[in-house]
Amino acid sequence: METCGVPPKDLFQLLSRFDADDMILDPTFGGVNRSADACIAEITFLQGRTEDQKRALFRYISQRAAQAGFRPDDIMVALTENSKMDWSLGLGVAYADHVAASKE
């Protein structure tokens, strides 16, 4: 919300924990030193965020994770962007069609 303009009610979060034996993470890929406590945050957005907003998001997540006791090297973020046609929020209706209908 703070870095990418996500409205406060537009939050849908799934949290999963995995045993260390269930994760295969290259400990040095990308020039970092990941520990067994490494975390991956996967975020899916509608298209439209700027590169600066994404950079700010990466910094924000890393800083907040560090405040919670994580090592910055252990925080990986993967962003995926798509369009309103790639979502259905329910009832089998494409979000693009829902938005178009609400404008009529």
Strand order of the largest sheet: 1-2
Order of helices and strands: EHEH
At the fold tier of CATH, the topology name is Macrophage Migration Inhibitory Factor
What proportion of the residues form beta strands (DSSP E)? 15-25%
Fold and architecture overview:
The chain is an alpha+beta fold and 104 residues long. It has a single domain, classed as 2-Layer Sandwich (Macrophage Migration Inhibitory Factor). The chain has helices at residues 51-67, 95-103; strands at 39-46, 75-82. Strands 1-2 form a two-stranded parallel sheet. Helix 1 links the parallel strand 1 (39-46) and strand 2 (75-82). It is elongated. The mean pLDDT is 92.
Structure keywords:
single chain, 104 residues, alpha+beta, Macrophage Migration Inhibitory Factor, two-stranded parallel ribbon
Summarize the structure.
With 104 residues, the chain is α+β, with helices and mostly antiparallel strands. Helix content is 25%, strand content 15%. The model has no long low-confidence stretch (mean pLDDT 92).
Question: How is the secondary structure organized here?
Answer:
Blueprint lengths: L38 E8 L4 H17 L7 E8 L12 H9 L1
